[in-house]
Amino acid sequence: MNDFEGPDQTAVAESPDAPGPEASDAPENPHQTESIRNALAEWTVTILLLLFGTTTLVQAFVIPTPSMEDTLLVGDHLLVDKLAYAPPGSFSKYILPYREPQHGDIIVFRYPLDITTNYVKRVIGVPGDHIKVVNKQVYRNGVALKEPYVYYKNPYPDYYRDNFPGDPNVSLTDSVRDMLQNHVINGEVVVPPDCFFAMGDNRDNSADSRYWGFVPRQNIIGKPLIVYWSYATDTQSLTGASTRTLLLHFSDLAQHFFTKTRWRRTLMLIHGYNSYN
User: Fold this and answer.
1) Is pLDDT of 42 > 60?
2) Four-residue CA torsion sign, 167, 182, 137, 101
3) Annotation marks residue 175 as catalytic
4) In the 8-state DSSP scheme, what is residue 24?
5) Which stretches of 85-185 are assigned E, i.e. beta strand?
6) pLDDT at position 177, please?
7) How many CA atoms lie within 13 A of 23 on its CB side?
8) Mean pLDDT, to the nearest integer, of 211-218?
9) Where would you tag: which of 137, 235, 237, 271 has the fewest CB atoms within 10 A of its CB?
10) Domain residue spans in the chain?
11) Strand 143-144 relative to strand 184-185: parallel, antiparallel, unpaired?
C-alpha cells in the first residue's frame, strides 16, 4: 500500500486581576524563550528554502493516503526539508540546524520494503528505546505517551494492532519476523542502532513499523516543512496510474480548484511533538 503521506495548541491566559510579580521582577521563562527561538529559526529556514531551494534542498510530495490524518490529509502537497537530517558539512553545520530524528518528529523516508515508494510517519522510537502498545496506549521506556495528534477511527478491536508486540494475526514480512524474534525483550520492542520505530497518527489505519519493521537511518529523506497547497481529493485519484484516472483528476481540478482547495491549510507549517510533554 502506498502510504506516503501539529497538534492544536491551546493558549491559556492568566486573569488580568491575578496577582503576580512586577514585570521587572518576573523571571525569564526559558521554555518560552526557547519556543520563540525555535519558531524564528523554523521560519527563517523555511523562507530560505522557499527562496533558494532546489531539489537538492527541498522536494515536493503529496499525501495520497489517510494514515497520518488528521495531521496530514489526503491531498496535502508538502515541501520536504532534505537538509534537516543530512550529514553536516564542515561549514554548513554552523548555519543550518542539522540533527538526528527525534521523538515526535514527522519524517519522510523510503519504504523499507520498496525504496521506490516514499512514506511519511511519526518517530515513536529512536535507537535504544523500548516500545510497546497496550490497549492502543503507546509506552516508551515504561512511560505512557501523551499523543494529542493521534486519532482512532476504527471501532473494531484488533489484538495485534492494539497490543504490540503480540501474536500476529497477519502474514509477516521477513523484517517483522526478525523484529519480533530478535528485538523483543520482556514484551517490548527494542529499537536497534541506526534504526527508528515509526507510526501513523491515524493509528487504526496505518501500515507502519508494527507491520513492516524498523526504518533504517539511511532511508530517511527529510522532514515535511510546510503544506504549500491542499486539495480535497481521494486516494484513487492520487495513486491511480491509468489514463482515465489521470484525466478524471485533471477534470476535477479544472472544475473545482477554488472550491476544493483547503485554503486554511495553505502555507501551514508542520511541527513535530515531544510526546513526553
Assistant:
1) no
2) negative
3) no
4) G
5) 106-110, 118-125, 130-134, 137-140, 143-144, 184-185
6) 95
7) 0
8) 97
9) 137
10) 28-122+195-269
11) unpaired
Contact 79, 220 (CB under 8 A): no
Per-residue confidence band for 58, with pLDDT thresholds at 50, 70 and 90: confident
Percent of the chain's residues with pLDDT above 90: 60
* Long-range contacts (CB closer than 8 Å, 24 or more residues apart) made by 33-38: none
Please confirm, yes or no, whether 67 is among the known catalytic residues.
yes
Cell numbers 561549514 correspond to: 91
Please give the pLDDT value at position 21: 38
Nearest Cα to Cα of residue 199 among 135, 109, 87, 82: 109
Query: How far apart are alpha carbons 141 and 46 in whole angstroms?
Result: 33
Cα separation, 253 vs 249, in Å, equals 6
3 state DSSP class of 82: coil
| Residue 62: all three cell numbers together | 503529496
Q: All 3 cell numbers of residue 257?
A: 480548484
* CATH 3.40.710.10, applies to 28-122+195-269: no
Pick the catalytic residue from 121, 209, 230, 237.
Answer: 121
Higher-confidence position of 45 and 172: 172
Backbone φ and ψ for 47, nearest 5 degrees, come out as -65, -40
Which pLDDT belongs to residue 93? 58
pTM for the structure as a whole: 0.78
Three-state SS for 88? coil
Residue 194: exposure state from Cβ atoms within 10 A (0-12, 13-18, ≥19): exposed
Write down the catalytic residue from 15, 24, 35, 67: 67
